[in-house]
Specification:
Shape: globular
CATH architecture: 3-Layer(aba) Sandwich
Organism: Myxococcus fulvus (strain ATCC BAA-855 / HW-1)
Largest sheet: 9 strands, mixed
Protein name: DUF1501 domain-containing protein
Radius of gyration: 23 Å
Pfam families: DUF1501
Strand content: 5-15%
Number of strands: 12
Number of domains: 1
Distance between the termini: 61 Å
Length: about 525
């Protein structure tokens, strides 16, 4: 039986397919990378996006414990509201003691909050311009494209462009589908030696990782990126030799030669990653390795968790990136990662589903944070140990008013979790909405309607740029490239007399600059 070249590549290299399709393209094909003007921490930093797919119900993540706001909460949620005594009290800086409570599944996040290593960003979501209720009702201010749509709002979070149909973009971005993680990679590329991709995705929303000049490494959730082998060394060697021969055939066709170049580079990256992961991990003290591995063992009796192994693979890649080339690692200074956890579209029977999802999230975030602490304590990285910040994103939050199926429906602004050693934690950032839906919410300026869909008071752009700034994209030109709408948003907030938080390019003091 004869096989076409395409069939051969599909059969022998399926393990590299995701990487080959999206690895860094030749510069002549996609344009030169943007210049970088970076500063800050001299060691390694990573931002890790945890995308909660389906629309996480933030209203049950963070609940006010004051008598009046809690009564509003329970009035809207007689069946799925969490009993006040079951919530985990927290005392955010600047607020009354035990002013809020976290979902009972978030015990480890609560501990990190109390330690000052976790924060919550309140009522954040996609916005074209800052908006008040009257402007929403009248349509005087543009809304995000296809508000309340899963796919469109996932894209809005992943791209930090709420209105792709009408947005004004820098020339380098026109006609390209990019995410803010990928555009951040375009900016920070100059800080890393070589061409190894700055963004590595194990899950979440692929758009987040796509840049204009830098493309991500897309890896299956299990972390394996290699040729499909059959256990026979001679067969595997023959397969590799045959692949090299096929890739060398171009017949003078430009696109054919370009594909061969891309695929060869993808193979190079995959091999470099595998070797660096093994060498850097082996360089850690055995005690550290064992302790980290133990963190990523799920609780007794738990099976089927998907987020924990993704974050374990991120940790292994982080070690490889932070280890110097001389030490067998990749010798990088800045990276971003993406992982995902699905199942948050809780229209029916939300209580048990959401409880289980948040338990998985809680355990996984804590395991990763503690693993990075163990790397710092190992002493292997000297005075500049790796730093990492975890942050959550989701399509949207959900209606405050429960539906007849004891679930919730699509809404808008929600609360995000940020965790890391450099997080200025123990605080709520942004403005928590009023939960008063008396008179169908007519007197509540925070809701679009009677069901409690909160108009965001912080934009995704501000949230995204806070992380991009921490990674080093501090110049105004870098800001305007990573978040193209942000300057217009801030100018409108200033002109419109919006609160101070809306008039800032990033969330102040969320992350330390050093």
């Amino acid at each position: 039986m004869s096989f076409s070249r395409r069939q051969f590549l599909r059969g022998t290299s399926s393990g590299l397919g995701l990487l080959a399709a999206s690895s860094a393209l030749p510069r002549w094909l996609v344009g030169e990378a943007q210049a970088a003007s970076l500063g800050g921490y001299a060691g390694y930093r990573a931002a890790v996006c945890v995308f909660l797919l389906g629309g996480n119900d933030a209203n049950n993540v963070l609940v006010p414990l004051g008598a009046t706001p809690y009564s509003h909460y329970r009035a809207a949620r007689p069946n799925i509201g969490i009993p006040q005594g079951d919530l985990l009290p927290i005392s955010p800086e600047g607020l009354a003691a035990n002013a809020y409570g976290l979902h009972p599944s978030l015990q480890k996040v609560r501990a990190l909050f109390d330690q000052g290593r976790a924060a919550l960003v309140c009522n954040v979501g996609p916005l074209v311009l800052p908006m008040k209720k009257a402007e929403y009702t009248s349509g005087a201010t543009a809304r995000p494209d296809n508000l309340y749509s899963h796919s469109d709002q996932q894209d809005a979070w992943a791209s930090a462009i709420a209105n792709p149909s009408t947005a004004g973009l820098p020339l380098a971005l026109v006609g390209k589908a990019t995410g803010w993680g990928g555009r951040m990679a375009d900016m920070i590329h100059g800080l890393n030696a070589g061409e190894y991709p700055e963004v590595v995705s194990f899950g979440g929303k692929p758009l987040f990782a796509a840049g204009a000049s830098r493309q991500p490494m897309m890896i299956p959730a299990n972390g394996t990126l290699a040729f499909r082998e059959n256990g026979s060394a001679s067969f595997n060697a023959l397969q590799t030799e045959a692949l090299a021969e096929v890739l060398g055939i171009s017949n003078g066709v430009t696109l054919e030669a370009s594909y061969a170049g891309i695929f060869t580079q993808a193979k190079t990256f995959a091999l470099a990653r595998a070797e660096a992961r093994d060498a850097a991990w082996s360089a850690l003290p055995l005690q550290t390795r064992n302790a980290i591995d133990a963190l990523f063992i799920p609780p007794s009796g738990v099976t089927g968790w998907s987020l924990l192994p993704q974050l374990q693979n991120v940790l292994r890649d982080l070690v490889a990136g932070a280890t110097s080339a001389a030490g067998g690692g990749l010798g990088l200074r800045r990276q971003a990662f993406s992982v995902g956890l699905g199942g948050f579209d809780t229209h029916v029977g939300q209580l048990t589903t959401h409880e289980a999802l948040l338990a998985q999230l809680d355990y996984s975030l804590d395991a990763f944070h503690r693993a990075v602490a163990l790397l710092r304590e190992s002493g292997v990285f000297g005075a500049t140990p790796p730093q990492a910040t975890l942050f959550t994103m989701s399509d949207f939050s959900r209606t405050m008013v429960e539906n007849s199926d004891r679930g919730t429906d699509h809404a808008w602004g929600g609360h995000a979790i940020v965790i890391g050693e450099q997080v200025q934690g123990g605080r709520l950032y942004g403005t928590y909405p009023s939960l008063d839906l008396d008179a169908n919410g007519a007197n509540n300026p925070d809701t679009t309607d009677s069901r409690g869909r909160w108009i965001p008071t912080l934009s995704v752009d501000q949230y995204a740029y806070s992380l991009a700034y921490w990674l080093g994209a501090t110049a105004a030109t870098e800001r305007d490239y990573v978040c193209p709408n942000l300057a217009t948003y801030v100018a409108a907030a200033t002109a419109g007399g919006f609160p101070a938080a809306a008039r800032r390019y990033r969330i102040p003091s969320l992350l330390g600059a050093t």
